[in-house]
Each structure stands twice: as C-alpha cells, then as structure tokens.
Amino acid sequence: MGSESTATVKIPSKTWWEMRRLKYNIIVGCIGILIILDLNLYIKKGASFDAVFFFTSIAVGVIYAILCNLTYTLLWMLDNLSFGNDLVDFQSPKRTLILYLFVFLSCMVPFGILHLVKDLL
User: Fold this and answer.
1) Residue 61: which residues within 8 A CB-CB, separation 6 or more?
2) What pairs with residue 12 in β-bridges?
3) Which of 69, 99, 110, 118 gives 43 a disulfide partner, CB atoms 3.0 to 4.6 angstroms apart?
4) Do the beta carbons of residue 19 and residue 56 sit within 8 Å?
5) At what angle do helices 21-37 and 93-116 cross, to 10 degrees?
6) DSSP string spanning 11-47?
7) pTM tops 0.85
C-alpha cells in the first residue's frame, strides 16, 4: 500500500473567480429572462402589448446583467485585496461559500425590487 498524498492545487485568486464566471453568467442570463417575463406577463397582466414597455423590460434585464458582472468583478478584487492571496486553493471552501451567497443574493434582489415597485409600472 503506497501512501497517497493529496496535493493541493494553487491558482491565482483572479483565475479562481474567472473560472466560475461563465456558470455565473448563465445563471444571470436565466434570471434576466425571468425578469423580462415577470415584467411583461405578471406585472403588466391584462394590459395590451406595449412595445416601449417590452423594450424597456429588455433594457432592465441587460442593465441587471451588467451590474451583476461589475459586482462580480468587484467581489474578486475585494477578495484579492482583503486576503492578499496571490495563490489560492483550487477547492477553496471560503470562496465557494462567498460565491454561492453572492449568486443567491444577486438572483433574489431584482425580484424583490420588481415586486415592491410593481404598482408604479
């Protein structure tokens, strides 16, 4: 029986975050589509089709995606500045927890705001 060593793979913190950006963008894209559907089907229900409102809802979805990506970039920058990690563990549980909390919050916040202001639309 040979002893198996579990080598820890170290990568730059920016790389750790950027390797997960595609999955995050897929989630953000799905949420953006749900925002557009929510605005047009639930909040505007019973109203006739309004092209201006439809394109405005698309703009809201795009703005949401841009803000999410800017915040995502800020998150890994803060991670790098706060912890000063040039190289981090590829399987970093701390960063994974931060990432999942961030994904959850970035998915829930727009729907909360939309439903708070639905009477204004």
Assistant:
1) 32, 33, 35, 36
2) 87
3) 118
4) no
5) 10
6) EEHHHHHHTTHHHHHHHHHHHHHHHHHIIIIIITTTS
7) no
H-helix or E-strand containing 64?
helix 51-83
Q: Could you give the CA distance from residue 33 to residue 47 in angstroms, rounded to a whole number? A: 20
CA distances from 5 to 2, 8, 35, 93 (A): 9, 9, 48, 20
3-state DSSP call for residue 61?
Answer: helix
Task: State pLDDT tens for residues 21-56.
Answer: 888 889 888 888 887 787 777 766 666 777 887 888
Q: How many CB atoms lie within 10 A of CB 2?
A: 4
Q: What is the 3 state secondary structure string of 81-121?
A: HHHCCCEEECCCHHHHHHHHHHHHHHHHHHHHHHHHCHHHC
At 11, list the tokens. 């990568």
